[in-house]
Amino acid sequence: MNVVYEVADRIATITLNRPEVANAQNAELLDELDAAWTRAAADEDVVVIVLRAEGKHFSSGHDLKDRWPEPKEITLEWIYQAESRRYLEYTLRWRNVPKPSIAAVQGRCIAGGLLLCWPCDLIVAADDAKFSDPVVMMGIGGVEYHGHTWELGARKAKEILFTGRPVTALEAEQVGMVNQVVPRDRLDEETRALALRIARMPPFALRQAKRAVNQTLDVQGFQTAVQAVFDVHQTGHGNALSVNGYPILVELDEMKTKIE
């Protein structure tokens, strides 16, 4: 089971459950995760959704060994369709679930890991959390869901993309990407306390408050920008396809094995 789903005290807790591979996202995990979000959205007994992860790290990003064809069989059309479904449509759907959501993040949150926590309304980070999108070094201008500018601000987003360096939990809190930074051993406790506080609020008012903020961002161009940048993202894959053997997959996989 790649994802564990539990409900208690009007809180749905969704847990990433591949700690042996730092919660790398294979197709099964993402499909199960989407099903869990859908289940929580439809459950009238659920007021708040918490997304958390087992193990040392929140997520090392996409599992690049998962269901990729042989390099000679990869086409840009195949990549676009696969990524559009699981890396963009899912992420936007989670962002727009009409219930408050909280991500609890520990350890590394790399590239595709951002696609899991950024759609959440609030983020509680352990003091050991580090957020990064190093895919520019692999020839692609950033991960598929471009929340960077909105989450970090334009100049910090450029710095992180240009250098590939991780953002610490404290840095993320300073720029408003993270709501709280807590000791690692209190992450679940503090996240649950926040969720319980929110769960006592009227559900309809919570839905309206979330809608108000999300619509304000959309009026500013959020969803249009995310879709546009996703299309630009595909040019990186197109460039990689022009190189024999599609080496991006190998290089990214080697990079991930170096996670501390």
Task: Describe what you observe in this structure.
With 260 residues, this protein is of the alpha/beta class. It has a single domain (3-256), classed as 2-enoyl-CoA Hydratase, Chain A, domain 1 (Alpha-Beta Complex), CATH 3.90.226. The chain is built from ten helices and nine strands. The protein has helices at residues 27-42, 76-95, 114-117, 148-152, 154-163, 169-174, 187-199, 203-219, 222-241, 248-256; strands spanning 3-8, 11-16, 48-53, 101-105, 108-110, 122-126, 130-132, 167-168, 180-182. The strands form two sheets. Strands 1-2-3-4-6-9 form a six-stranded mixed beta sheet, sandwiched between helices. Strands 5-7-8 form a three-stranded mixed beta sheet. A hairpin with a 2-residue loop joins β1 and β2 (11-16). α2 (76-95) packs antiparallel against α9 (222-241). The longest helix has 20 residues, at 76-95. The radius of gyration is 18 Å and the shape is globular. The two termini are 25 Å apart.
Short characterization:
With 260 residues, the chain is α/β, with parallel strands linked by helices. The chain is 46% helix and 15% strand. Belongs to the enoyl-CoA hydratase/isomerase family.
Strand content: 15-25%
Helix content: 40-55%
Beginning-to-end CA distance, first to last residue: 25 Å
- Low-pLDDT parts are none
Structural class: alpha/beta
Look at the structure and give the CATH class.
Alpha Beta
Taking all Cα atoms into account, the compactness measure Rg is 18 Å
The main pleated sheet reads as: 6 strands, mixed
Which fold does the CATH topology refer to? 2-enoyl-CoA Hydratase, Chain A, domain 1
Following the backbone from N to C, one meets helices and strands in this order, namely EEHEHEEHEEHHEHEHHHH
Number of domain units: 1
CATH architecture: Alpha-Beta Complex
Family: Belongs to the enoyl-CoA hydratase/isomerase family.
Protein name: Enoyl-CoA hydratase/carnithine racemase
GO molecular function, one term: catalytic activity
InterPro entries: ClpP/crotonase-like_dom_sf (IPR029045), Enoyl-CoA_hydra/iso (IPR001753)
